[in-house]
Amino acid sequence: MNKEHNGLSKFIFMFVFLLLITYSVIIIYPLLWMIISGFKTNQELFLEPWGLPAKLLWSNYKSAWDVGVGKFFVNSLFVTSVSVTVTLFISACCAFPLSRYEFKGQNIFLLIIIGGVMLAPQVSLISLYKLLQRLKIYNTYWALIIPYIAFRIPFTTFLIRSYMLSLPREIEDSAYIDGCTSWRLFWNIILPMCKPIMATSALLAAMSVWNEFMFALVFIEDSTLRTIPVGIMNLRSTLSTNWTILLAALTISALPMIILFIVFQKQFVRGITQGGVKG
Amino acid sequence: MANISLRGVKKVYPGNVTAVRNFNLEIEDKEFIVLVGPSGCGKSTTLRMIAGLEEISEGEIYIGDVLVNNVHPKDRDIAMVFQNYALYPHMSVFDNMAFGLKLRKVPKEEITKRVKSAAEILEIEDLLDRRPKALSGGQRQRVALGRAMVREPKVFLMDEPLSNLDAKLRVQMRTEIAKLHKRLQTTFIYVTHDQTEAMTMGTRIVVMKDGDIQQIDTPQNVYDYPANTFVARFIGSPQMNITEGLVRDNDDRIEIVLSEDTIINISQEKEKLLKEKGYVDKKVLVGFRPENLHETEVDELKSHYSTINATVEVSELMGSETYLYMNKFGKQIIARVDPKSKKRSGDRVELRIHWDRFHLFDIDTEEAIK
Amino acid sequence: MANISLRGVKKVYPGNVTAVRNFNLEIEDKEFIVLVGPSGCGKSTTLRMIAGLEEISEGEIYIGDVLVNNVHPKDRDIAMVFQNYALYPHMSVFDNMAFGLKLRKVPKEEITKRVKSAAEILEIEDLLDRRPKALSGGQRQRVALGRAMVREPKVFLMDEPLSNLDAKLRVQMRTEIAKLHKRLQTTFIYVTHDQTEAMTMGTRIVVMKDGDIQQIDTPQNVYDYPANTFVARFIGSPQMNITEGLVRDNDDRIEIVLSEDTIINISQEKEKLLKEKGYVDKKVLVGFRPENLHETEVDELKSHYSTINATVEVSELMGSETYLYMNKFGKQIIARVDPKSKKRSGDRVELRIHWDRFHLFDIDTEEAIK
Amino acid sequence: QSSQPTGGTDQVEIKFLHKWPQPEYSVYFDEVVEAFMKENPNIKVSVEAVGDEPIKDKLRVLMGTDNQPDVFFSWSGEFAAKFVRSNNALDLTPYLENDPEWKNSIMEAGLEPFTYDGNYYGIPFRINGKFFVYNTEIFNKLGLKKPNTWDEFMTVLETLKQNGITPIGFGNIYPWAACHYITGLNQKFVPQEVRVKDYNPKTGEFTDPGYIKALEYFKSLNDKGYFIEGVNSTEHNMSNQMFYGEQVAIIYVELEEFVEVEENLPGKWDFFKMPDIPEGKGNQNFLTGAPDGFLVSAKTKHPEEAVKFLKYLTNKANADKLVQQLGWPSPIIGAVNEGNSPDYLVRGMKAIEEAEGMALWLDTDIHIKISDVYLPNLQELLNGTKTPEQIMAEVQKVAKEVQSEVE
Amino acid sequence: MNIYRNKKVAILFMLPALVFVILFIYYPIIQNFIYSLYRWSSFSEVKVFVGFDYYKRLLSDPIFYIALKNNALYAIISIVFQVGVGMILAAVLEEKIMRRYQTFFRTVYFMPSVISITVVGLLFQLVYNPNIGLLNAFLKVVGLETLTHDWLGRSDTAMFAIIATSQWQYIGYIMLLFLVAIQKIPEELYESAMIDGANAIQKFIHVTIPQIKETILVTSIITIIGAFKVFDEVYVMTAGGPGRSTEVLASYMYRAGFRNDEMGYAATIATVIFLITFIVTLIQLKVSKEKNEA
Ligand SMILES: Nc1ncnc2c1ncn2[C@@H]1O[C@H](COP(=O)(O)OP(=O)(O)OP(=O)(O)O)[C@@H](O)[C@H]1O
Ligand SMILES: Nc1ncnc2c1ncn2[C@@H]1O[C@H](COP(=O)(O)OP(=O)(O)OP(=O)(O)O)[C@@H](O)[C@H]1O
Ligand SMILES: [Mg+2]
Ligand SMILES: [Mg+2]
Question: Among A80, A262, B247, D3, which one is least packed by beta carbons within 10 Å?
Fold first, then answer.
């Protein structure tokens, strides 16, 4: 039972716990490094990368913000929230029949959808660029949002589908008997049970959209529409890079994702589908 | 109007498992049909096909004269209690029960009223806010039942809705379901493995075995005139005793020899029947129920009774009755006698049985002789 | 050695639901303990605490003198049949049953042998290759049972293992479980809501209500001497009739007045008891079971019998017996009489009852007077 | 003035793409553009800036479309030539010929690398030379002097090393760093006309033994331990920081980086050209370096306005502003002078002016496919996983392929 | 009728996704394939049809094989660490005794995947740096001085160093997917297994793994595909060097198209990447299906 620790298992627990802690340190240390380095001068960064800054240069964070991180932030926020919402919705819709229905050609549809996972977006850069221009959405938010959605759908669908696969059929049966249309079933029964995976997918999608670089670079020309990654990358050039400001900017830009993660933690509900059926 | 008609319905599951074969049944409007049969005989499958949850491999199902083979479950206007509950795990008990009504746009107060009243009947008023996960087995089952009870559909399908309830509650629920039936005046199809439920609730009982219908009749008839040995053994507890006997023509009287010391008389109709069907000098199966074996002397016409002498091997006191187990005719025979019986293991008993209480079956087909 | 001892065990679920409170029970080695009680009274919770699946909020559990509060379930050497089966969906029936043995490194042939033989007993030999999903409700339950049966643990815990089986199979399984108990000589704790199972299988019955123990005793004693009206009503079907009566001292004989026309005599011990405890001229609750009401004349000492006159309102034929429902003492009284009874609705009946068959309870505490 | 397509107040818009989004630099462009638009209310200049690496992708993608910026940044040499060959760059010769004053204000060394088949396609914006920058304090302490020849250079390095000072900070994680050394060494080892012929994709052979010599010399710097440890995993930037932290004595940097050096090590440094190699068959008087600048799109709808803007951007006043504000070396004659510039910049510019010619960055001067083989191999060379001979054999092979591909 | 066979409804549900995917993923791919048949540069309008020449060239291109090998290495190591370790971590954190600490650990472990590769790349360049790097310093401290190395600068270790970085970054990401999957497993299966006598490891093997098969499939497909698409890590940390030792298919494609201006060749490599990942996925789907049916 939970509190049980006889000698051996206590030892194992401690051992495992120690491993977990060690791994945490391996992860936290670099993160701290990122934050702390954001306070350093360039020289301190390169000469004593692991040391503490002589004095905290808050100005790095301030200049990072002033450089436009603030403005980019708003853009990123808009692009990310729209893309993620639409992606989740469309993907969940798509995953639903793929996991709950049986129909001819199902596997083909499945392949078509998840086939998209396999594509390196770099490949489509040029054709997409031309396509977006033809659709007259080049250099608008939609030039980012639409490709983001398209490239996020396959994986998100894939994730949600595999979660849906394991939901008990009987509950659906019972919903149909209660008079659900397919739509109501999807919306009132299946989606609520998918909360954890929806949260995960949202998080992962947000993460990738938030950090996406290549499309943001090419499909947006107007600097007032830029998102964070391009904004930040523009700070970097071969000869003179103000690394510490860059790091400060990156710290700022990573923050929303971390907050998002902490917020979404709540959605990881253990056993959300439990207790419904017997057997 | 919800007469239901199943014509030549068949269900083959993947893996070539035939769960139901050639199922024919005409259910009148307002009937209370009970499906019984051994575990795995296809009861749930039949219900699920009527509900539209399972594809029909062959045959046709009509509800109120409409062929529903291709009608979506939601359009069949059915309420169902699932054998495994199938509650919505993410909804509270209240919402579980209210969901079907919400979908049907029943006004809010009406929903609350109906759910509350059903919950009261089911004694789960205190649990309305809980999720299914935090309920006991029997409580979950009651929620499943409640979900159907709040509805007013054309057809109720109930798959062992009381199996996880204690006797007392079960009696109450049985009454409530009967009331519901009376009030709503709709068709019920009810699966149970409880004798009492089957006998008391059904207008007709359908006995199934291995996907086949064995007998469809009123409870009393199924009990009194089982169509074959399977039904005879299946209905009634403890089971009917069945043994072989030789039909002998003894000076114009037909009698049946069960063993050297046990020769039974039969009524004249039965004699006639056996003669006509040519069973004389052939073996038949003779069945008699444990509760029809009496220890006490009878004052009625002696000739209508036969006597079986045996030695008690085990006597089982059950509170309200006593079972006597005896070895006779090369098999175990059970008698259900008055609890005041003083017979114990090793005692000899003389048991009497009325000739109307014998059931005769063909030894090959095991069908009742009639 | 597997005597089990529960001392002051309490379980509070999150949300402040007290499922079991102050549970004290000493179980001898090899006992067959049956837990009964209404749905939601804490039976499953108790089993789960013994198994180690549920944290104990208070109190101590010993198995074979070892305090197991902190022992991992896997180390308690227990087999359990879950109320909701808990089969491994990804394993075949065979593997489901074999899993516990494999983990214990039982040789392969031995596993096959045991599983095969259990499957035979459970009549699921043909299903060994299927996944649980492709089984009917009863078949799943039998697999769950089989999973426990193949093991040879110190303690068996069974939570309504037969609830989804038909009567016939249930009788068979009951016998098989009894045999298993005999063969393995281990401790069984068994939850059921089936009277017959409780009465026939248990060496002792524990009756629970709302997390409290009401009575612990042998089946016969629980039936014959229920500790309070709850137990009296809960055990036995149809329920015991309970009505109020005034204890009256009539010329040195103590009698109880149920109604103007019904005054019952009681045995001398009971008289003494009532006098000693000071119930004279007070009201008590009088209980009598339906099966103890007889229609027929009795030849034994008349004085030992009392007579109740009533009019039949409903008579229910149940095949092997008949229930008569009457209105008397301002409530419904049920009598279970011989199926040959010719009494129908509206007929007057005279029912007799032996004075040993009365149960007396305090009107306030509802405890048995003794 | 320029021809107005439609009279009146109609505004024309020209798009301007540069590669300095960093705020400390971009402000310069914003100000210039602002001023230009004030002067020319009928022209609207929309500015876009993307960083050093991204601009390469951006240009490539844009070139295939109708969305080309009218005026865009380009490096000189092969990088610009690509645009010329693919008809994306406007021939600026007529404009320059028509405005000799403009033309003459620009250093020839800056204009020349933007020529293709004798025509001008680009206007230089900055001009850059590569120099060894050294720590004067360390040199003085050890009594070292600026080396003039390779041998002296080696002595200096050896002395430094003997004194426990890592001689050269060198970060070659991106091999353009090594390529800058090789640019100079090739130039010094290979006869001028052979080199010019080899660098031309149509005629390149790379069979001269000088190429191998160049690689060997370069490699010996590493083999003798004159570079810091782990050159292939160090960033150029980081090696500069080591210099500023006085952990190394010498770094090899571009003129435009002098500002930064001065900022970090004020007054404690000086610089010298890559030392002569007497036995080398090449011209010893060239300087490694190149201009970068702007091209005008061949597809532009407003060539007049675009050129006008370019002219404005490179006028003397703005060049002065560039030098003063950013400390960048301008190719506009006289923009860098004692009056407006720090001493080091003036001296650097002088070195460029004194040089007989410029050896353009190897990676921008040879065909990209050749450089794609050449450059990564420089890392292998340093790691000792390939010999100079092997490398040149590979280069020769790809040069041959390129010959056949470029018509 | 079967309620689960209503193709019309199914397609209606999938329609938006299909439109997006086909228009913005497949259409470009097909175009990409067509591009691979031409010799062209992005800024010229002339396209010269060369048929399958580029494919032939690719097959005899040694760098292609280096890249392929690196990608394969990437895939194998990632499967072991991200899928393997990620899964184990998730299972450990889902153990009852660990649940209390789970929120902390999962937050920490997931964190690296939130951070931009730019930082991670820079960070690890510094970690691996032979002079000032943490790794060598650590090795020296524990007395393994002989193992110190110029991790990113030498051809023999550079690829592994990059791959290791990736593991550091993404184990937590995969772990999260597993966590969600494991949390969905009915508690009663574990209870039943405990009663059957299973210890933690046996529970993991006999209950957890079979129950998260689908997730194992998903994660291994994405890690493999991810491994074949990998670009940023290489681009940021070594740009393919030293020499060509860390070249991967995507970086090679990038180099071909956006540096060397052989768009046709880049498109060819892209098509090949697609084919490889497609085949790998197909095989995995097939294998998992067979296992399920068996
Ligand atoms: N996880 C839980 N959280 C909160 N309450 C619970 C939980 N599980 C059970 N309960 C409550 O505890 C009480 C006892 O439950 P338990 O399952 O032991 O009942 P039971 O006697 O087995 O009933 P049944 O015969 O219906 O199975 C019930 O009232 C139930 O609602
Ligand atoms: N999905 C399935 N795939 C294959 N066979 C199945 C499937 N579902 C049920 N069966 C089989 O079909 C037969 C009938 O099953 P059904 O559930 O109708 O039985 P039942 O009469 O309800 O039994 P019980 O009383 O045990 O619930 C059984 O033998 C069962 O094993
Ligand atoms: Mg069933
Ligand atoms: Mg229970």
Answer: D3
